[in-house]
Amino acid sequence: MASLxxxxxxxxxxxxxxxxxxxxxxxxxxxxxxPQSPSYPFVxxxxxxxxxxxxxxxxxxxxxxxxxxxxxxxxxxxSTSYSPQELADLILMAARTAIGTTLTLSxxxxxxxRRFSDIPPFAEMVNGQLVWHHGFLLRIAAE
Length: 143
Fold this sequence. Notes:
The protein has 143 residues and is of the alpha+beta class. It has helices at residues 4-16, 19-25, 84-99; strands at 29-31, 42-55, 61-75, 110-126, 129-142. A 5-stranded mixed sheet has the order 1-2-3-5-4. Strand 2 and strand 3 form a beta hairpin. Helix 2 (19-25) runs antiparallel to helix 3. It is elongated and about 55 Å long.
């Protein structure tokens, strides 16, 4: 059986891989890391930090509380209709809607899921191209 964190990872990918998000990023939804020279725009998500793990008296995991990052990355070449900032905001809005407030795990259940905080937008030069980053953090507790 997959660990709770792995089950959450699979469920998050499933929630992000829907038309509302893929309309903007196609199939460019990455777990943990992007390819060396990714095409833009894309979404990357990853487990940031495990929270407290609660164990039963028998030693099995009773509750795992993790922090997950979901981030959109865009460039000025990605859209003629939107600025990189606006496009990242649209992608994140679609991601928040797709994730919603529930996740279905293969062998476990999510006790709660909520947006923990926003990741402030920032820009950086990557291979001579200005890349815009913007995202949010989710707190997900599963058992």
